[in-house]
Design goal:
The protein has 469 residues and is of the alpha/beta class. It is 25% helix and 20% strand. The chain is globular. The two termini are 23 Å apart.
Length: 469
């Protein structure tokens, strides 16, 4: 392979999207009707998929179906979930099913329908770097085209006035458990890969689930339902002090509104950091229905007078872990409240230990001299989801699902995806193709309610769509 040609950017694009997860798919769906906007999106995977390892039968998404890719910004958009049902002739069955929260597998199928129908989405394209070309006043985006096996096939480059990063999150494995995951033998997997290894996990004599959030609860429930009564041999442990329900009261949910996002963004950095740590139950708790289903299943197994062989222990962290020969795993545990320690021997481990934002350093290394950072060396992100760059950079780099420290608990929430995408497109075009509501919550989060006035926008230079691009 040779280096991509360094030709002049005769017709730079208006927007290049990096990553095609739900957030950038939402942006692409809302961008399509804007005929003046030349946008393209790159994704290294061969096609769209959404947490395929956790599409457990019966598992639902934790937001109502109205929180699809477009509806909360534009209910008339053709890429809505309801239109997906209409094209599949499933509107009446859905109507009678009365499901406000749809199954994860159905949400995944909906997103794949959108991804297959939208133009301008390029899968098997791995973006390698984004740089600012000061002479041409554009961003250079270098990418590698991948073949069916994921190997490099060709190099390419495109030029753009703006970039939006939607690279999402990656499975997180705590340091004490990394040696187990990285070595072969006894199954130790992250919950993100659960369905791919489910048969092997179910075949193990004793299984331990680590992690007390929604994924851990769903995996534990699925294992419980498929183990024989009285011989379940399951253990579920987690660091949180309880297997706690997610905050799901109606006023509590107003933390996932644009009003709260704006309020959070305006707070001082130390206050935001304290809030982010304290608000875990808003987005890391367990759905009350899942907790009820676990209790119901455990209770059902006591009807003959015995107790299920299942141990549920919150408030526990894994200090170290190792293998015993090649057939078993030993976890060294610490109970945080009791300040006591013990050892657990098990035959398989599922790590429901969550996800972390993918680092942007590799892709944005070329922009590092221009980036402005906060007191903890994190990228600063303005209210309209743009990285704060040196004023000499006239283009914008927007970020999706990468601003927990600046925009709060709603950052990864699917319910704010359409609103965030509309905010980005309004900012990008310098217009308001998607008028957004001035108020979205009954709660006033500060003593002085913010004045909701349209922001003064810097007009963007847009080019007509070019045929064949």
């Amino acid at each position: 392979m040779s280096n991509p040609p360094r030709h002049e950017p005769s017709a730079p694009r208006d927007l290049v999207g990096v990553g095609i997860g739900p957030c950038n798919l939402s942006l692409a769906a809302l961008a399509q009707p804007l005929a003046e906007l030349d946008a393209v999106f790159y994704e290294q995977r061969p096609g769209f998929d959404w947490h395929p390892g956790l599409l457990i039968e019966g598992a639902t998404i934790q937001v109502p179906f109205l929180a699809d890719l477009v509806t909360l910004a534009d209910p008339t958009n053709p890429w809505s979930f309801l239109n997906h049902l209409r094209t599949r002739e499933r509107l009446f069955p859905f109507y009678f099913a009365e499901h406000f929260h749809i199954q994860r597998a159905e949400y995944d199928a909906y997103c794949r329908w959108v991804a297959q129908g939208l133009p301008g989405l390029h899968f098997r394209h791995q973006v390698d770097s984004v740089r600012w070309n000061a002479e041409q006043d554009v961003f250079e985006v270098d990418f590698t085209q991948l073949d069916a096996e994921g190997e490099a096939e060709a190099l390419g480059r495109t030029y753009t006035r703006n970039v939006v990063l939607g690279v999402g999150t990656a499975p997180h494995v705590p340091d004490p458990l990394k040696p187990l995951v990285e070595s072969p033998g006894v199954p130790v997997i992250h919950a993100a890969d659960y369905l791919d290894h489910r048969s092997a996990i179910l075949a193990a004599e004793h299984v331990t689930v680590v992690g007390s959030g929604q994924s851990g609860a769903e995996v534990f429930l699925d294992l419980l339902r498929h183990r024989p009564a009285g011989r379940e041999k399951l253990q579920w442990i987690g660091r949180s002090e309880a297997f706690a329900p997610m905050e799901y009261s109606k006023l509590g949910l107003e933390h996932f509104t644009p009003d709260y996002t704006r309020y959070f963004h305006a707070l001082a950095e130390p206050v935001r950091d304290r809030l982010s740590a304290a608000q875990w139950q808003l987005h890391k708790g367990i759905d009350a229905g899942t907790l009820a289903a676990i209790h119901d299943e455990l209770y059902r197994r006591t009807l003959d007078g015995g107790w299920p062989d299942a141990v549920l222990v919150p408030g526990v962290r894994v200090r170290t872990a190792g293998r015993i020969a090649t057939t078993k795993i030993e976890l060294h545990l610490e109970h945080i409240q009791q300040d006591s320690r013990s050892r657990l021997t098990t035959d398989a481990v599922v790590l429901a230990t969550g996800y972390r934002e993918r680092p942007l350093g590799r892709i944005l290394a070329g922009l590092d001299p221009y980036m402005r950072r906060d007191g903890n060396e994190r990228p600063r992100v303005d209210e309209e989801f743009r990285l704060v760059l040196d004023p000499s950079v006239t283009g914008s780099v927007y970020v999706q699902n990468a601003g927990l420290h600046t925009h709060g608990v709603g950052t990864p929430d699917l319910g704010l995806a359409a609103w965030r995408s509309a905010t980005i497109l309004n900012s990008l075009t310098g217009k308001d193709p998607y008028p957004l509501p001035a108020r979205t919550a009954f709660t006033s989060f500060g003593l002085e309610p913010p004045a909701h006035v349209p922001q003064t926008r810097r007009p963007k230079r847009l080019t007509p769509l070019v045929e064949g691009r």
